[in-house]
Amino acid sequence: MKKAAIGILMLLFLTGCWDRLPLRNLRLVDIAGLDLDEKSGDVVLDFVVTKLKSAGQGEGTPNSELTELKAHSLVEAVGQGDYIDQAPFLPVNTRVYFLSKRFASHDPIPKIAFLLDAPYSSINTPVVVYEGSMSELLKTKSGRKKDFTKNLNEFILSLEKNGVVSNVSMMQFILSKEDPLKDIALPLLKPLDSRMELGGALLFRQGTNTGVKLGKEQVRMLLLMSGREPGRQRFTGHLPGNGEGQDINYGFSLKKGDSKISVGRPSRGLPEIKIKVKLRINAFEIGETVKTLKPDYVNRMEKELSKHLEENAAETIEKLQKANCDVLGIGMQIKAFHPNVWKYLNWRKDYPRLSIKPKFNVQIVNSEAE
């Protein structure tokens, strides 16, 4: 009897899950692209669904299908999916949401806010903006290039992993509409030959497109000033010669970064804001062979690089203030830690007029001059 009981239990374990979903029936929405029709103004939903062909034993050949739905609203377009033979659009497995620049420029959040309440929606999925037509992109690329959607999704995830730009989830983007202190920078992608590249970021103030775009280097300055985890960040560029000869090329990886926002309290007028950034870097190029750097040269390069980054950061801050877009969260810092200062501020009116000064302290940690 004991052997028989053990045998029955073994059969239960070996037969697998009774309610499993066969791989051949699993559909993944690799890309959900949202655009606007130029003539009618209708919402256009393009989505690429991947199924596994010849699935078995945990393997299979991915087969992608592109579907386009168009209606007066996104909700209506989604509803049309119930009547097509490729099966309805189910955002439960969506890997990335693409907003065309045209869609993102016309108050996008009211059109997509229903996703927060729609059952099984992938609201933690990243949102990016595409500088072009979503229909043209997906029709020309997804069908012809077998690994296009796979490579595109991996590229978007790598941007945050490598410390290039912070990804924003659909939930964060939608909820920012109701938060007066939550401004956002959405990554902006653009085509490069047969591939895709980061073109910068679009600034949104409470979910509304400000029309202001940050360049690629300004996006990276945001990450440095926010003090987020460095990931695999690498920086290259050149230091101006300042009349002492040719520009000096530099390259470094960020070992550790820290940022702190301090608020000064003048006797009258607006508070003075300082963003203090401390960087510990591994230099792999900085004008001379890194292994032969002398103490005096290292000290000079640390000061020059600090000054250079401060200038780039100041340009980035100036652009944020012109857009009245507080991506760095300065307002939240003041409200949380300086309530006596906050109560005298009219934030949206005063933020563009604040004195915000970045201060960088760069330390090279991998030379003989340590």
Q: Main attributes?
A:
four-stranded mixed β-sheet; 12 helices; 370 residues; alpha/beta; nine-stranded mixed β-sheet; single chain; globular
Task: Describe it.
This protein has 370 residues and is an alpha/beta fold. The chain contains twelve helices and 13 strands. The chain has helices spanning 2-14, 74-80, 101-104, 109-112, 134-141, 148-161, 170-175, 216-226, 295-322, 330-337, 339-342, 347-350; strands at residues 27-36, 43-56, 59-71, 97-100, 126-130, 168-169, 184-192, 195-205, 208-214, 234-239, 248-264, 272-286, 355-364. The strands form two sheets. Strands 1, 2, 3, 4, 5, 6, 7, 8 and 9 form a nine-stranded mixed beta sheet that branches. It has a four-stranded mixed beta sheet with strand order 10-11-12-13. Residues 8-26 have low confidence and may be disordered.
Global Rg? 25 Å
* Main sheet makeup: 9 strands, mixed
Spatial gap, N to C terminus: 74 Å
Structural class: alpha/beta
Tally of separate helices:
12
Give helix and strand order, one letter per element, not per position.
HEEEHEHHEHHEHEEEHEEEHHHHE
The overall pLDDT average reads 82
What is the global morphology?
globular
Poorly predicted regions are 8-26
Percent of sequence in beta strands: 25-35%
Please report the total strand number as a whole number. Answer: 13
Determine the fraction of residues in helical runs and give it as a percent range.
25-40%
Helix and strand arrangement:
Elements: H1 2-14, E1 27-36, E2 43-56, E3 59-71, H2 74-80, E4 97-100, H3 101-104, H4 109-112, E5 126-130, H5 134-141, H6 148-161, E6 168-169, H7 170-175, E7 184-192, E8 195-205, E9 208-214, H8 216-226, E10 234-239, E11 248-264, E12 272-286, H9 295-322, H10 330-337, H11 339-342, H12 347-350, E13 355-364
Parallel strand pairs: 1-4, 4-5, 5-7, 12-13
Antiparallel strand pairs: 1-2, 2-3, 5-6, 7-8, 8-9, 10-11, 11-12
